[in-house]
Amino acid sequence: MTKAAAPDVVRSAYAQLVVTDIERARWFWADMLGFHIQYEDDATLCLRGMDELTHHSLVLRQGGTPALDHLAYRVRTPDDVDKAKSYFDSLGRPTRRIKAGDGTPGIGDAVRVIDPLGFPVEFFYEIDHAERLIQRYDLHHGAEIARLDHFNICTPDIPAAYAHYENLGFGCSETIEGDQHELYAAWMYRKQTVHDVAFTGGAGPRLHHIGVATHESHNVLRTADIFGALHKERHIERGPGRHGVSNAFYVYLRDPDGHRVEIYTSDYYTGDPDHQTYRWNVHDDRRRDFWGNAVIESWYKEATPVLDLDGRPQPVTDALLDESAVAVGADGLG
What we know:
16% helix, alpha+beta, 334 residues
């Protein structure tokens, strides 16, 4: 079968996570991080950052085992939803149409697929709009999350992930490569920032983290201070620090179910048509932390399992290359 035309992806739009206790999840994501609750029922929370004008960028769904239900990308036109179906059908991948009202609250007609990397991914155009809260400073609290920024996924074959997203029209901002240009990691974008999706080499398919943006680096530090002040510092996994890749200031946290979130700010513009990929060498210990701070083992090894279109856990394959095995500088994991 001839490969059909790919849909025109605008940006990473939302992630839907399975959590085991919706009230504990509310405490972490809404009370502590400052997401606005746009919709809720007994088993679902739809959340958005304070800058976001669409219905949600994160959905938490009550379930028995923590997992990624699906990632979602917004496409440019309603026709691109149909294109997504035809494209993944032509690749021989599982696809499913989701009618408005049958899927995630606030989302119109959509297509969900299992992509060539084994991830459950939704493509949609229509989404409900929401009240402008950008200047409702009286409602801003916690980490003061502004918006969803990116997904980071664990996959055993980084070149295959690169090729798949390149076929979807994504550009590449930065890579981590070996001396023979072996690809250990890549950061790829559709919106004009460093990335909408990044690939961490490791057993997969698994979700490494979702990245959410704040406006300033002091919001990242405030996040750590709030967790520390409440004796909840065990939720802080790594950082604060500054990345080499992306230049962003960051802190990584784990929610009560172990889902990882990065609080992220200060990356850069990638919108020029001749934007060039910046290539880091895997032996440069500034790549993951610009100050050379250690990358702890859990950050390399632990991640969230993903579900298929029927809600069953996807099987996991071991990685071809293991970045954590390259002992350099502060990493010290080899």
